[in-house]
Design a protein that fits this description.
Blueprint lengths: L1 E9 L2 E8 L8 E9 L4 H7 L29 E8 L12 E4 L6 E4 L5 E2 L6 H4 L2 H14 L6 E5 L3 H10 L6 E5 L3 H10 L3 E3 L6 H9 L8 E6 L6 H7 L1 E9 L15 H5 L2 E4 L15 H15 L5 E6 L3 H10 L6 E5 L1
Parallel strand pairs: 8-9, 8-11, 9-10, 11-12, 12-13, 14-15
Antiparallel strand pairs: 1-2, 3-4, 3-6, 3-15, 4-5, 5-7
Helix pairs in contact: 3-4, 3-9, 4-5
Length: 342
């Protein structure tokens, strides 16, 4: 049996390869992919060749556990149907089931049952591919721990930023302000529940941000800030917009990108906490009550309530996937979420 697989072959080069599907290992299931989602953050680093060398893409996911280097398959949001069972003691009731997998972009793949998640009843394939990013957004809130009445700022309104904003809008906050360079994302941010969404390139944006946050005229700046823009230079503005003893959750993965960080001024006396957040693990203080399975279930529930499929801006056939990466690389203002169809 043949399958179509997407490979990153060099910086800014992605190619579809027709290859033979490997033989099944005992206990595996064959999944036919229907939809997969492009991650506009991490996958753009892969596409541009900006990943740090010698680092596993994700050691917690078997399909992504190898070190980086071209040619490379990468992706982690595939939804499809189980169409066959390999040899061994696989239960037949998997056949025909709709499943999600943290798996690269390819038309067919073998997976063990523990590598698949059943898509909840009532959710479509297009909704299911948001699981990875919704879980990431849930993790950001777990790490940031928003408190009732707090003033919150979110830098970056790509899909992960929008999902984070949508989750935050369900909290009883004093204010919720977002920032993004692109108009369509700012509009989507307001729809997601932000009270205001600002353009960080405006000369007076910091003053406007502080004005929007300080609605009660009691505490200057954000209590809680999320830096989700993917641009390391944004961290300086996040620090400037965060108040005394505030906390900044850094959810961006910058890869090889670097920028000077100004820690010698306001930051030095402000007791701001910088918090690294990454979805492959849970914050230790919650691990006694939470595990990944519980977090997955909450993420599924939020997908059903928030309907993130409304933010799909392009549906591109797998054979034209390179067009999607070109949009993200060269015309990012045109895209929020791109999905590949099969």
């Amino acid at each position: 049996m043949q399958r179509n697989s997407l490979y990153f072959t060099a910086p800014r080069e992605a190619a579809l390869v027709r290859e033979k599907l490997e033989e099944a290992q005992p206990g595996q299931l064959l999944v036919e992919t229907r939809v997969s989602a492009i991650s506009p953050g991490t996958e753009l680093l892969v596409y541009r060749g900006q990943l740090p060398g010698g680092v596993s893409l994700d050691s917690t996911i078997s399909a992504l556990a190898g070190e980086t280097g071209y040619p490379l398959k990468y992706g982690y949001a595939a939804a499809g149907k189980v169409i066959d069972c390999g040899p061994g003691s696989v239960r037949g009731d998997w056949l025909g089931k709709a499943v999600f997998a943290f798996h690269p972009h390819e038309s067919h793949f073998w997976a063990r049952p523990e590598e698949l998640m059943l898509i909840p009843e009532g959710l479509s394939f297009e909704q299911a591919v948001f699981l990875a990013n919704m879980e990431t957004a849930v993790n950001f809130l777990m790490d940031g721990q928003p408190v009732a009445g707090e003033q919150v700022a979110v830098f970056g309104q790509g899909i992960v930023g929008l999902l984070t904003t949508a989750l935050l809008s369900q909290h009883p906050l004093a204010s919720l302000v977002t920032l993004d360079r692109y108009e369509e994302r700012r509009k989507a941010s307001l729809e997601a529940g932000a009270q205001a969404s600002l353009d960080p390139s405006d000369a007076a944006v910091l003053e406007e941000l502080l004005s929007q946050l300080q609605r009660e005229r009691v505490y200057r700046g954000a209590d809680l800030t999320f830096e989700l823009s993917g641009a390391p230079e944004t961290l300086n503005m996040a620090i400037a917009g965060t108040g005394f003893n505030g906390r900044i959750v850094i959810g961006s993965w910058y890869g090889q990108k670097q920028a000077p960080l100004n820690l010698g001024g306001f930051f030095h006396r402000s007791r701001i906490r910088l918090i690294s957040s990454q979805v492959s693990s849970l914050t230790p203080e919650l691990s006694g009550r939470w595990n990944k399975e519980r977090r997955y279930q909450w993420a599924w529930d939020r997908i059903a309530r928030i309907h993130p499929e409304r933010w799909i801006t392009q549906r591109i056939p797998l054979e034209h996937a390179s067009e999607g990466y070109q949009i993200l690389d060269q015309r990012p203002g045109e895209a929020i979420q791109i999905v590949l169809t099969y």
